[in-house]
Amino acid sequence: MFPTYFYLRVEGLYFVISMKNFCLAPWHCAGFVAAALLLNACAPNQDTPTPTTRVDVSRYLAVGDTYTSGFSAGGLTRASQEYAYPNLIARQLQGASNGASFSQPLLEAGTGAGYFSLVDFPADGFFRTRRVDGQAVRATVINPAACAGADTVRLLARSATAGTLPQNLGVPGLRLTQIEFPGLGNENLAVPGATFNPYFERLLSTGSDQTYLKSVTDATATSTFFTFFLGIDDLMPYVRAGGQCGPVPNSTLTTQLRQNAKKILDQLTAGGRPGIIARLPSFTNLPLLRAGKGLDLQARLQSKFKDDALIYIEDPIGLGRTQPITDDDYVLATTIPRVGQLTEVLVGTTTLVLPYGRDIRNPLRDADVLDKDELSRVSVVVSSYNNELDRLASEVYKLPVITPAKKQSTLDLDVALFNPVAGSISVAGVTYTAEPVRGNFFSLDYYSLTPRGNALLANTFISAFNKAYRANIPTIDANNLPTSAQ
C-alpha cells in the first residue's frame, strides 16, 4: 500500500498535510511519470511518514531564467509567479524545516508586460489567442531592430522589496552569457538595441549596475540550499526566430555557457552548500518545434486538405531556391495555422494567389522554419553544455544533477518529464501531452509551463532531492492545480 497526502488550498497555493492510516491503490499514488520514484511503502495502522530531510532547507535559493521565474502564456503575472516551480518546491520543503521561508519579487495583481489569453479552439485544431496588456507599465522602449522584428521593452513597476534580493532569482529572458554585464538591470540603459532586462531591473535599486552574478553571490550569503536551471534563454531567441537572429549557436557560445555556468555554481556551492543542478531539455520536445516536425506535419495537412501536396521551404543557402521539407526540418508552431492559406506572391512579373508553403512557387520563409542545419547547431550546444554540467556535478561539486539518459537514470529531465509529456503520459488518470493547454503541461506560448506543468517539474526536483539526500519530501498532486495561471 502507498501513502497519500491531503492538499489544502490557501490563497491559490497548495500545502501538503499528511493523512494517517489512509492508502490508495498504487495507480492513484503515481504522482509523476515514474511512479516508483516517489512512493514509500506503508502498512495498515501505520502513520504516514512526516516530511523529513537532514539537509538544511530553511533558506532555499532558486537560480534560473524564464522557467524558474514562473513565466507562463507569454508573460509574467502575480498568479504565474505563485505557481513557479521553485515556489511549489519551497512549499513542500517547509513541512520539513521549521521557520523556512521563500521570497519572490511578486508583481501587483494586473501588472506586468502582458500575457496570452485563449480565445477559442476553431475546428482546424489551432487555438487562437489575444494579447492582454499588463497594467502599471512605467515606460516603453520600442526597438525597431529587435530579433524577429520590432519589439517593445516595457519598464515594470519595481518589486516592493527592490534592493533586497528575493530567494527566487529566476529572471525571464536572462541569458547565461549576460551574467557579468554591468547595467543589465539599469533603466538608464533601456534604449533601443541595448542589453537590458526589465525583469532584472525591478529586483534592484534604482540606477543599479549590479550584475546578475553579483546578485547570486550576495544571495548565497544567507542561503542553505539551491537549485540551478539556467541556459535555455540563450538559445530560445534563435529557435523562435527560425535561426534568423539571436545568439548564433557555435563554439564561442558553447564556451561562454560552460564557463559562466561554473562561475555561478562556484558561488552557489561555496562552503559545501547542497543543491541540485538541472540540464537543459531537448528543444524538439517543446511544442514550439514538435508540432511542426516536417513529414508528420505534411501528412496531417495532406489529410486535412485531402490532397498529396508537399510542404516547400526556402533553401537555407538562399539564392531564391526552394526544396521539399524533410523530417529533420521543423515548422514553428506559430506558423502552422498559416500553412496552406492563400497568399499573393510575385512569380516573375505576375502576381498569383497560392497556398503558403504548399506550392513550390510560394515556399515557407526561412524564418518560419528551423531547418535541420540550424537545429543541429542548437543540439550541439545543448549537448556540450549538458555534458559540462554533468562533469561539474560529479567531479567538481559532488552534487546531484538531473542526469543524462546515457546513465539510464530515471531522473533525466527529458526521460522523466519533457520527452514523455511530448508523447502522452497519465498521472492519476489525467493525460498530459505536448499540446498547449489541452495537454495540461505547456501554456499558450508553446514552451512555458502551466501550473500543472510547473508542479510536475517541481516533482522532478523533489524526486532528485529525495534520492540524493535520502529525504522524504512529498510530491505535489499536479491534478489539483489549474491548467492556466492567468
List keywords for this structure.
two-stranded antiparallel ribbon; 13 helices; five-stranded parallel beta sheet; 19 strands; 486 residues; alpha/beta
Protein model, in words:
It is a single chain. The chain is of the alpha/beta class. The protein has a domain of 303 residues. Helix content is 27%, strand content 18%. The protein is built from 13 helices and 19 strands. A five-stranded parallel β-sheet has the order 8-3-9-10-17. The chain has a two-stranded antiparallel ribbon with strand order 1-2. It is globular. The chain starts with a strand and ends in a 17-residue tail after the last helix. The N terminus is likely disordered.
Would you kindly provide a brief summary of this structure?
By secondary structure, the chain is of the alpha/beta class. 27% of the residues lie in helices and 18% in strands. It has a domain at 60-288 and 407-480.
Strand-pairing-aware structural class? alpha/beta
Mean pLDDT: 86
How much is the radius of gyration in Å?
23 Å
Main sheet?
A: 5 strands, parallel
Low-confidence stretches: 1-48, 404-410
- Total DSSP E strands: 19
**Overall shape:** globular
Helix content bin: 25-40%
Specify the number of helices: 13
Quaternary structure type? single chain
Instruction: Give the strand order, joined by hyphens, for the main sheet.
Output: 8-3-9-10-17
Approximately what portion of the residues adopt beta-strand conformation? Answer: 15-25%
Terminal-residue CA separation: 37 Å
